[in-house]
Amino acid sequence: MKVGVVGVGCSKFGQREVTLQELTFEAVKEALKDANLSQEDIEISVVGCVGTRGYELMPAVVVNEYCGFAGKGPLRVEAACATGSAAVYTAFSSIKSGLADIAIAIGVEKMTEVDTATSAAIGGRAGNYLWEHHFYGTTFPAYYAMHATAHMAKFGTTERQMAMVAVKAHRNAVKNPKAHFQKEISVEDVLNSRTITYPLKLYDCSPISDGASAAILASEKAIKEHGWDAIWIESVGFSSDTSNMTMREDFVGLKATRIAAEMAYKKAKIDDPLKSFDLATVHDCFTIAEIMAYEDLGFCRKGEGGKFIENGESDFGGKIPVNTFGGLKAKGHPLAATGVAMVYEVVKQLREDAGKLQVDLKHYRALTHNVGGTGHFCWVFIFGR
Amino acid sequence: MIVESRELRLKHRIPVTKTEKFWKGLEEGKVYKTICKCGRSYYPPRADCVCGSETEWVEITGKGVVECFTVVHSIPSGYEWSKPYRIVVARFGEVRVMGWSEEEIFVGDEVSLYTAKDGSGVWKVWFRKG
């Protein structure tokens, strides 16, 4: 049984003065309209929400009621910053298993209702509170910063190369009206911005954003009946790693990404990703994360990620355009919304409906790569038309 | 228009009975890992090996090598009392240890560990060069 995406929606990301459920409905309305469906047609709703920064501690029913899905699930899922992919995976599984023909995956996060120091303390718990944050005040940027210092020491990766990831992200985001940031920046702007946690500076970091996204998935049978022009989920790979960072194999990449990619590539019979995909969305919560993703996804060899961005290989016209809608870095990273927003992006691209950000399609295939925490979770999906 | 939620304060009572030797050890200047007869070593220490056996407590001594570090400038809530702090991860044989350092320590440096209270009175691991 093949499963395809038949409707997508995404809210504007940024500091949004609406409630969690109101924000979600923006994305759900768009997805329903896109698939030409109404709420009654949805059999299972999966609500992805990390929810640790919001006032609704058990948000799934609140979201479900407001969107008109009361009675249709909801299943609430959580996988840190990969929650959106966990929601898509759960909706995908419900169809694959034959339990449903049409399911919706929702990702929503309200992150701006608490102050920045509180947000940093919550993000620092996305690992192992007792053995790391409790003693050493690890924060989410600090975890990636430690990977950056390891990568710099081993491979000579530079702060300038990391800055280039941010510059590319902002350049793409200004053409995406839904992106949080709407201004271009220079390498110097990044290098001169204040240090958040050495070596990461303000512009190396994704912002604290609110956002929601939704994707409606359907079985091959339902797709034929409705006559949808679906974007097919060709393959999925997933993995995870230890909660304690100190127990990892190394700090120059994410093992969960390598395993998830290997699983997804094997199922889809992908030998060379550069010759298989028209674009990729990768998890660039920090600039170093995108550099490591190039390597762990096999776009270049380990240690060559810095050169890959420097040579423009991940830009429009390069070997594989990466994060064409601005990435987490500039589009924004409302945790659970991110993974589903990646699906939104690749569906728009594969339908050739991405406006000024449209890539040229040759393979009609794209990849999403969504990491939870610092490689605590990873999902890689391959989509095709 | 914005309204404020009612305040909810969360402070947890964390049971550390099974790793008490580690917590007491910090106050005595000792840092313990655990090892199992099946060959596994654990740091952070745990009383239960995944193989099902109980582990044994062994002090971590000697020199370690720094594998990564950062200096946190954007201070999270709960650490307001601190100036920017350096987090270091160093390898000591089979295990890696996280700690703070007041010295300028970089990747590849050789370090030794000691324990001391931080500015909030919590005993923890610290590193010094050499």
From TrEMBL, chain A:
Domain of life of the organism encoding this protein: Archaea
Pfam family, one: Thiolase_N
Keyword Amino-acid biosynthesis: no
GO MF term list: acyltransferase activity, transferring groups other than amino-acyl groups
Thiolase N-terminal domain ranges (all copies): 5-220
Chain ranges of the Thiolase C-terminal domain: 239-385
GO BP field: isoprenoid biosynthetic process
Keyword field contains Cytoplasm: no
Keywords linked to the UniProt accession: Isoprene biosynthesis
Classification via PANTHER family: ACETYL-COA C-ACETYLTRANSFERASE (PTHR42870), ACETYL-COA C-ACYLTRANSFERASE (PTHR42870:SF6)
Protein name from the UniProt record: Thiolase domain-containing protein
TrEMBL record, chain B:
Domain of life: Archaea
Record-annotated ChsH2 rubredoxin-like zinc ribbon domain positions: 23-54
InterPro entries: ChsH2_C, ChsH2_Znr, NA-bd_OB-fold, Thioester_dehydratase-like
Alphabetized Pfam families for the sequence: OB_ChsH2_C, zf-ChsH2
Domain ChsH2 C-terminal OB-fold: 57-111
Name of protein: Zn-ribbon domain-containing OB-fold protein
